[in-house]
Amino acid sequence: IDSKILSTDSNRYADEGRKYGLQVPFLRPDFLSNDSATAKDTMVHALKESERVFDLEFDILLIIEPTSPFRISSDIENTCRELIENNADSVVCVSPLDAKCHPAKALTIQNGRLKHYDQKGKDITARQKLESLYGRNGICYAITKKCLLNNKDIITSRTKAFLVERYIVNIDEPIDIKWAEFLVQSGFVKLTT
Description:
The protein is built from 5 helices and 6 strands; from the N terminus they run H-H-E-H-E-E-E-E-H-E-H. The chain is α+β, with helices and mostly antiparallel strands.
């Protein structure tokens, strides 16, 4: 990893990042700092601004989101290795989805009546028969510059998964912090330095 660059719109977070050795050569503009901004747009901005500021060309971006506190260094190393060794466009860290939340078992309410979201779901009674599904867990993403700039999505036909099958938490709400604390305090997650 040649450069460690923090993309943020906050002077407070920029100062905090600098304390930990991150470079913060720019702040994210307002149009990329609201709820309608996409992660991809912020990645493209960070890439282009970093190349401009440092007068460098970057080949690979490693995106590490601060909302995934149970990441370990081998997650990052293995994600990068997967990208390079498999000549992939991108590698996305994923975790298995709980079968209780499987879309085939999801329901909707239409005009006050309950309906199956997926009509095939009513024929599947055993969760063991459900197709395994995976969700992004926020641990990290490795993406080639070409993939980021030339595709609408970072997931292409040449995207690899890096599967993480341990407890993780992606912090979006205050209750997620409480859940993370519980997992650590109860011994389900051991923090490493």
